[in-house]
Amino acid sequence: MEQTHLDWLIELSERELLPGLQIDSIEPHNPVVVSKVPSPWQLLGTGNYAAVFYHPSQPDRVVKVYAPNRPGWTEEVEVYHRLGSHPAFSECLYAEEGWLVLKRLYGMTLYDCMHQGIPIPKQVIKDIDAALDYARKRKLHPHDVHGRNIMMWEGRGFVVDVSDFLHEEACSAWQDLKKAYYWLYLPILYPLRLRMPYFILNIVRKSYRLYRRFVSNW
Which UniProt keywords apply (predicted)? Predict the structure, then answer.
């Protein structure tokens, strides 16, 4: 029965979603722009290279579609192959050039938790640490793990985007986020339950990117 549902979703994707979808990646360091989604498909989220959709009839599976001329599909398929099954990661159920069917991860990104003032418990950080250690044992290199790529659900942490886990160059994004969590968020922001406007979060995100670029060129 599960395979039948999956086959049906693949057929729907090929017949409805992909032909009627308009998705563009205008600037590689900002999320893609989705200007058209065929009904009744729903947009779940966007990343720098791809967007994620689901069909109401199968809410536990998502379809991730890469924007035209954007890299990463081949690498992401390989990453999911190496990861196999782990509670903190999604699973790839089907892959075709430029798009994938994945197991859906429920929750809210840490980025959105900050915006809504929702407390982020330490267990989430511990879960991500354990998940990244697991990935390293699978000969992967956790890369670009930040507040928009981590989700929280019922107090547990999940890694949403693994597309860059084949990049071997050093990446301090997760370690920097942990420092900010323990040094700034936990002692100051956590007790206050402050809601952070998106424009402030975006300023922090862009400032951090400039800082990392400066450090890497030093």
Answer: Kinase, Serine/threonine-protein kinase, Transferase
Q: Identify whether residues 75 and 93 lie together within a single domain.
A: yes
Alpha-carbon distance of 42 to 171, in angstroms, equals 33
Quick one: angle between helices 122-137 and 173-180, nearest 10?
A: 160
Domain that holds residue 9: 2-103
Q: Based on the structure, what is the number of domains in the chain?
A: 2
Q: Which of 24-33, 42-51, 71-80, 194-203 has the lowest mean pLDDT?
A: 24-33
Q: Which residues contact 120 (CB under 8 A, 6 or more apart)?
A: 110, 113, 114, 152, 181, 185, 190
Residue 128 and residue 95 in one domain:
no
CA separation (Å) from 11 to 62, 92, 133? 14, 16, 36
CATH at residue 211:
1.10.510
